[in-house]
Write a structure and sequence with these properties.
Multidrug-efflux Transporter Regulator, Chain: A, Domain 2, Methyltransferase, Methionine Synthase (B12-binding Domains), Chain A, domain 1, Rossmann fold, 5-stranded parallel sheet, 3-stranded antiparallel sheet, 49% helix, globular, DNA binding, Helix-turn-helix domain protein, SinI_DNA-bd, metal ion binding
């Protein structure tokens, strides 16, 4: 029996708005919004009565693609205007908000960056990765408890889930990428950032799961036959053993049929250079560049 295909699952009840509401939020005229819709630049649906309705995801995608700034984003339930869109400059603020458990402020920072056009890869590399590393160092030194880290993960994952709902489903012909993290890595945030980076690049990205044994990742690959396998590893028990197992269980067979990308802080050590993969990614931006070349090959 053939396996069921991976399908993109987005929002089931996405917020929709009238042209007037979107016009007010963007600070343009209602006729401009209607013209963008009718020309196909801005995606919309129509009611049975012929009235235009604009999904929030379409509005956000349009603003990101065109550089159109929101005058009053809160009218659409988006983040209030943020004074800074430099991820590095926001690291201390986000760290403090996460430790305090301030979920609205966390959302405002992350959604604010996204709605202002920053790629998910940059938000991950330049903001979330350094902040979570800092949380990890404080935890290791006994200055934070495990509940601080868990609460921070929950807050960030909620925002990433919201952002995913705004991404248009991939084309039916989009290539499939399978994402996973190997056991015993239970970290969900890197896996979500990986998936969103792929989706934004036009791939049909599917998460096979976190903390999967390598033989189960291999089984999923053989079943679903993706064009690309992406592994994120933030923790491995023993790096040399992990390298040997990847090379024995995955790489030998995959490299002939499927491209293999491996990244994460657990494989930043020099010993990881012996991993047999198409790309040993240091950052999500490395993956973005690889995907661009992959698409042009």
């Amino acid at each position: 029996m053939a396996p069921a295909p991976w399908v993109f699952i987005g929002a089931t009840m996405e917020s929709v708005f009238t042209p007037r509401q979107v016009a007010t939020a963007l600070g343009v005229s209602e006729s401009t919004i209607k013209r963008w819709v009718d020309s196909g630049r801005l995606r919309a649906t129509r009611t049975l009565g012929g009235h235009r309705k604009l999904p929030l995801g379409a509005v956000v995608s349009f603003a990101r693609a065109t550089g159109q700034q929101f005058k009053d984003p809160e009218l659409l339930g988006l983040a209030s205007k943020i004074s800074c869109i430099d991820p590095e400059a926001l690291q201390t603020d986000l760290f403090n908000r996460l430790i305090e458990g301030d979920e609205p402020a966390t959302r405002n920072i992350l959604v604010g960056l996204y709605q202002n056009g920053l790629p998910i890869a940059e938000i991950g590399d330049r903001l979330l990765s350094p902040v979570f590393r800092q949380i990890g160092r404080y935890w290791a030194d006994g200055e934070l408890d495990v509940h601080h880290e868990r609460r921070a993960c929950t807050a960030v994952l909620a925002v990433l889930h919201e952002i995913r709902q705004w991404i248009a489903p991939p084309e039916a012909s989009a290539p499939l990428a399978l994402c996973a993290s190997p056991a015993p890595d239970f970290a969900q945030t890197p896996l979500w950032l990986l998936e969103l980076t792929l989706l934004n690049a036009g791939w049909n990205a599917a998460a096979a799961g976190a903390s999967l044994p390598l033989d189960q990742i291999h089984s999923a690959v053989r079943l679903h036959r993706p064009r690309l396998v992406c592994l994120t590893a933030t923790h491995v028990e023993d790096l040399p053993t992990f390298v040997n197992e990847v090379n024995e269980v995955l790489a030998e067979e995959l490299l002939a049929n499927v491209s293999l990308v491996i990244g994460g802080c657990a494989v930043e050590h020099a010993a990881a250079k012996s991993l047999k993969c198409d790309l040993l990614a240091r950052t999500l931006c490395d993956l973005e560049l690889y995907l661009a070349k992959f698409g042009n090959s």
